[in-house]
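Q: Structure tokens for this one, please.
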Amino acid sequence: FSDFAVVLGMVHLYIIFMIAPIFNSLMRIERSLITAAEDLGASGFQIFKEVILPLSAPGIAIGSIFIVTLIMGEFVTVRLMGGGQSASVGKLIQTQIGSLQYPLAAANAMVLLAVTMLIIISILRVLDIRKEL
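A: Here is the predicted structure, written as tokens:
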């Protein structure tokens, strides 16, 4: 039981929610764009940096939104993998509800919601994901 176990468990549990949108974005990249970059003399790193990464950015953004919304309220993995010793906001809210401190739990839940929405809005402001939906 450790913080490393919590991180490892969350990565193992949620990695598919990041891989699937990125894979979808990568499948939409036309092979002719990569071939054209190769014909123009670009190295493998330049092709990745200038062609593949910008075209897969919406998939990265969608995956990040999935991960943020799922991780923010996570308390089961933290409890099981951390042995009850690791802290998380979801666990804090659960403890407050168990202690019948409903106003404090509601306030913490609203702060969690506001932070989650702020992160999502900032991701959407940076990248345009409408073409991926």
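A few notes: Residues 3-132 form a domain with the MetI-like fold fold (CATH 1.10.3720.10). The first helix runs from residue 3 to 27.
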